[in-house]
Every structure is written in structure tokens, then in C-alpha cells.
DNA sequence: ATGTTTCCACCTAGGTGAAAACTT
DNA sequence: AAGTTTTCACCTAGGTGGAAACAT
């Protein structure tokens, strides 16, 4: 059972669209990664409260390796199985929300905070802003960070990446957002649910084909 | 003659796409205003330099009545003529750039700063965020403001609108960006130039005429 | 007569999974 | 055989001016 929100140090983070996440979770969520970068679906969206109104915060996320395994999909049992040791994460997997930094007031008043600009890729050579590089056939879980900024940090005027400090941040993880990376969907039920729930994927309503 | 940039208090603002603005200016630029809100074309875009790297700035604009006249377009002479006294500006005409506030570093490193989210409207009843309400058949000139923020203002956490202070800002005005508001284009040459230069207006080239 | 509103075909821009081609 | 890359038809989302209807 998962209540849809987490509270830590007085900061409350709600997972928006938790029902949809749960539907996907029951089937073992797959996320496509491509060279050009692909959005996540469902999109990670949160609501934040309990912040200090006039305090500045960075809000960002990283994608944490769920374990150190590589997976493969076994068709006849319709299951993901461990297929050996995983590869270590090659690049930093941090994505800063575009509105950072902003005051507690701003974060809370804007309602839903969406990470829809984030794209997943398997392209390790050219590092593109807004993309996170992952290994295919591995499991990851998103971790959301809320980090208060000191007055000195605000004044320093350095790049946002330099201000990030995971140790100084409050972190939130929702179990139903674990996913396995793929370059093509393995479980047909996942494909069907994506088509049924993602407005951009309505092009092929009756598509059903078995891999032989 | 207009050099394409202005310097004031050590801050330099360049008008991006000045050549296009000049083409429209020679014909007397018209901007459509609608109830739902319409973008400006050309879009107002600038480059800023000479800012203090670690200082926070707001960048915003307002649309200033060019004079206190109402205009009408005289077809047989293809000219805009004064048609009486103008109406006073009803609402504040300020539009804050979405990246505000940001450090001098940020503003300068992002290259072109575009005001493409701005929309012009004649709807005075429902005030929509990101829209500026104007009178039709009046002349306006955009004025760009660069306003340094004090540490206290940054900490105050109030809304951005409350932080705006035109008297504390450095203002820039480019003569070639004057325009007349209309609800339908008056000068056909303006229409042609808009179609020729705006990618979103390519729908009606003479290609799809009646077949003989 | 003049100016405004509404609707629409035609675009740009970009997010989807399917299928075929490609790699190992 | 298994996984990846490329291309593409089909979508969503939204920015254009034209034309007809509407308002004054």
C-alpha cells in the first residue's frame, strides 16, 4: 500500500497521477530509451507543500539504479528475469526542473510541478541538456530532491548544476515509479496501456502482433 | 539610421532580427489583436550584455502608447491617418519574461531572449496571464526594461509583479518596433510580408488555386 | 461604411508505436 | 536469436490569414 504522498522534514510531496502509475506498475513499467531521447510516460508530476514561503529551493530529480542487475524479458512466462550483473551508471543522472531556483511560494502556488521536459537516452557520446543517459534492460527508480538554497549560494550566480547538493536536499521516492529501460517494448500489455493512456500514441488503436 | 543596439548605464541591448523589423517598419507595421490573444510578428527578441554576473535582474517589457491619437487606414492613399483623439490605456501593459528573475550570467549565456510568449488582446473583461490588452487602431511602441534586484527583494518571496519597478529599471526602445493595432490587416503589403516571413502563415500561397 | 468576431483550412513543431533494416 | 537504429504514418497542440457572419 502506498498513500500517494510522502512527508519529510515538514515537506510534503504528492505524486500526481498515482493511479496511472499503479496501473503500469502492476505490469512492470517499461520506458523506451532512444538515441535522440524519449520522454517518460507516465510523466513524473508532483505537488509540493510545507515549504518556507520566502526561502529559495532547487527542485530536481535523479534516476537511481534500482539494483545492480541486468534484466531480460521471458516471453513464455511474461516476466522480467535477472540476466546477469548490471553495468554501472556511466554519467550523472540528474535533471533540474526548469523553474529552479524559485521561492517556496512559487513552487506551491504553481500547483503541479511536471518533469515533462526530461528525456531518456542511451546515447553516451553526445551529452544533451535535459537528457539522462541510461543502460537498456536495467531497472531505475526516480528520486525527487528539494534543496533549500542559502543566501550565499543565491548570490554566487554560478550555474545551477554547481549549486546541486544531494546531501543538502530532502529526497522522495515513490515505489510505483520503478521502471525497466528498453529500446522496444517487451510486454504487449504495456504497449496497450501506453496507447490507451498517452494521447500522443493513439495512431494505431488496433495494433496487436506477437513476436515469433 | 538605427544601429541595432542601445547602451545605457553600461548595459547593452541588441535587437535581434532588426532587418525584418525594418522591412515591416517601412510599410507601417500592423499587429493583429484578438479576443483570445495573438502573438506579435515579428517576435520581439533581444541579446543583453554588460550585466553583473552574480547580480539578479528582472527583464520585462511594456507597450507604451506612441501618442494620444486614434488612427484609420486610408486605402486610396495607402496611409495611416490620424482619426481623432486616442483612448487612454485601460490596463497595465507589462509582460515579465518567464526566466525572470535570473543572474546576469544566466541572461547573457542564454543568447537570444525571446518574448514569444507575449500575446496581444482587446479583451478587457477577462485578464489573462501573459496577455496585454490594447486598443485597436492605436499606435504602440515596446519598451524593454532591465531591473537589478536587491538582496532584500530576492528574499522577500513576493510575486514577480510586486517586484517590478520601472523607475529602478534601465529602459530600451527601438524606433523600428512601433506598430499599429488592428483586428484585420489594412495594408495588403503587410499581409504579404507576414505570409512571406512567418512560418505559421504559409497556408495560403497561390499554389492551391482552382484547377481549370 | 467600418470595424469585430467566429470558424476553418493550412501550416509548424513535436510526441507516439509499428515495421523494417541493421548489428552482434 | 536478441537487441538496436531508422524511418514513417498517425497523432496532439497550437500559430496563421481568409472569409463570412456579426455589430455599430
Distance between the amino and carboxyl termini of chain A: 37 Å
Mean pLDDT of chain A: 90
Measured as a percent range, the helix fraction of chain A is 10-25%
Oligomerization: homodimer
- The count of strands of chain A amounts to 16
Catalogue the unreliable spans of chain A. Answer: 205-212
Radius of gyration of chain A, in angstroms, nearest whole number: 18 Å
Structural class of chain A: alpha+beta
Shape field of chain A: globular
Order of helices and strands of chain A: EEHEEEEEEEEHEEEEHHEEH
Question: Biggest β-sheet of chain A, characterized?
Answer: 7 strands, mixed
Biggest chain-to-chain interface with counts:
A-B, 15 and 15 residues
Q: Percent of residues of chain A in beta strands?
A: 25-35%
Number of helices, counting only DSSP H or I runs of 4 residues or more of chain A: 5
Could you provide a short overview of the structure?
Chain A is α+β, with helices and mostly antiparallel strands and 212 residues long.
Task: Please describe the topology of this protein.
Two copies of one chain form a homodimer.
Chain A: E1 5-8, E2 11-15, H1 18-26, E3 30-32, E4 38-39, E5 45-49, E6 56-65, E7 69-74, E8 79-85, E9 94-96, E10 102-103, H2 104-109, E11 113-114, E12 119-121, E13 131-133, E14 139-148, H3 151-156, H4 160-163, E15 170-172, E16 179-182, H5 188-197
Parallel strand pairs in A: 3-16, 12-13
Antiparallel strand pairs in A: 1-2, 2-5, 4-12, 5-11, 6-9, 6-10, 6-14, 7-8, 14-15, 14-16
The first copy, chain A, binds a DNA duplex (24 and 24 nucleotides) through β4 and α5.
Amino acid at each position: 500500500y502506498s498513500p500517494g504522498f510522502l512527508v519529510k522534514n515538514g515537506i510534503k510531496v504528492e505524486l500526481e497521477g498515482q493511479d496511472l502509475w499503479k496501473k503500469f506498475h502492476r505490469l512492470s513499467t517499461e520506458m523506451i530509451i532512444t538515441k535522440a531521447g524519449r520522454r517518460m510516460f507516465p510523466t513524473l508530476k508532483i505537488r509540493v507543500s510545507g515549504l518556507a514561503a520566502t526561502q529559495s529551493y532547487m527542485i530536481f530529480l535523479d534516476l537511481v539504479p534500482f539494483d545492480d542487475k541486468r534484466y531480460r524479458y521471458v516471453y513464455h512466462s511474461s516476466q522480467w528475469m535477472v540476466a546477469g550483473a548490471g553495468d554501472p551508471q556511466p554519467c550523472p543522472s540528474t535533471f533540474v526542473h526548469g523553474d529552479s531556483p524559485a521561492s517556496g511560494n512559487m513552487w506551491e502556488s504553481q500547483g503541479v510541478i511536471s518533469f515533462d521536459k526530461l528525456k531518456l537516452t542511451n546515447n553516451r557520446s553526445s551529452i544533451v541538456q535535459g537528457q539522462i543517459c541510461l543502460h537498456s534492460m536495467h531497472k531505475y527508480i526516480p528520486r525527487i530532491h528539494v534543496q533549500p538554497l542559502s543566501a550565499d549560494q543565491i548570490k554566487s550566480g554560478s550555474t545551477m548544476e554547481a549549486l546541486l547538493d544531494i546531501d543538502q536536499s530532502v529526497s522522495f521516492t515513490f515505489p510505483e515509479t520503478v521502471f525497466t529501460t528498453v529500446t522496444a517494448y517487451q510486454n504487449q500489455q504495456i504497449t496497450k496501456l501506453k496507447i490507451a493512456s498517452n494521447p500522443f500514441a493513439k495512431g494505431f488503436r488496433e495494433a496487436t502482433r506477437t513476436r515469433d
